[in-house]
Amino acid sequence: MIHNSYYYIESALTPDQCQKIIDLGLSQIDSVKKAGGSTVATTFDGGHKEALEKLGEPVSPQADKTVEDLRKEKEKKSYIRDSEVSWLNHQWLYDLVYPFLHKANNDSGWKYQFDYSETFQFTKYGPNQFYGWHADGESCHHGKYKRYIPGITKTGPDGEMPKGYTTVPDMVGKIRKLSMTINLNKPGEYEGGNLKFDFGPHNQGKRFHECTEIRPQGSIIIFPSFVYHQVTPVTKGTRYSLVLWTLGRPFV
Fold first, then answer.
1. Helix, strand, or coil here: 130?
2. Rounded CA separation 50/81 (Å)
3. What's the CA gap between 130 and 205, in Å, rounded?
4. Rounded distance, CA 48 to CA 238, Å?
């Protein structure tokens, strides 16, 4: 049990900084497409929209089903994720957000050990797009990243790297500790698309929470990576966000 399940800083980034990130993220999406690549946001278990549509069976969005509902489903005929992404690793982005990460980690009382951050994920959600219930990481040793060894590590059906493996030496043996999301949009540019938490059935009366606190442009929210969350469907406009995960040794 943690005292604070999330920590937010309203309007942490300026409108100019947010627009610079949006332009950079969209430019990267365009570059990947022009090179013949895919910008579809994927899941390791193939539960994203494009993967299920390729199976030739009718699929539907998972929408706002609870974690219990999803676990009861024996067949994956609904998709959990539908959006576009690009990846950014510019040093000025890390320099920009790291002070906020440290402030949240300290002021919230978590004071988690972490010593590495993954590549930034820029995400674009259009109308009806969303990301269903999930956790970004696990809190135990089972969630540690393992070293991917080409030619030895078993790959997925399409040759993709299996879940939990990495080619980055600094990630091996570590877990995701903190997740950060930045709202890049101006007020009124989209509707729906709220970050929503599921704190579990034990939190009676306070189980679910939609984070409208971070709707002001440039607002940052940080939370432990093991907390279940989703992005509700966008009902109007386009939502842009920037996501980062910090890594450290497993909790003991």
1. strand
2. 9
3. 25
4. 19
Q: Is the dihedral of CA 166, 23, 189, 246 positive or negative?
A: positive
Domain covering 7-248 in this structure, CATH number: 2.60.120.620
Residues in the chain: 252
The secondary structure element, H or E, covering residue 75 is none
- Pairwise CA distance, residues 243 & 221, whole Å: 10
Tokens of residue 247, six digits: 């890594």
Residue 66: pLDDT over 90: no
- pTM higher than the cut 0.85: yes
First to last CA, the chain: 15
Distance CA 232, CA 239 (A): 11
Instruction: Render pLDDT for 91-122 as a digit per residue (tens, 0 to 9).
Output: 999 999 999 999 999 999 999 999 999 999 99
Neighbours of 187 (CB within 10 A): 9
CA distance 41 to 44: 10
Domain boundary assignment for the chain: 7-248
Contact predicate 224/177, CB 8 Å? yes
Please compute, for residue 190, the number of CA atoms within 13 A of its CA located in the half-sphere on the CB side: 27
DSSP 134-147: E-S--SSGGG-BEE
Supply 106's token pair.
């300290």
Distance CA 252, CA 247 (A): 15
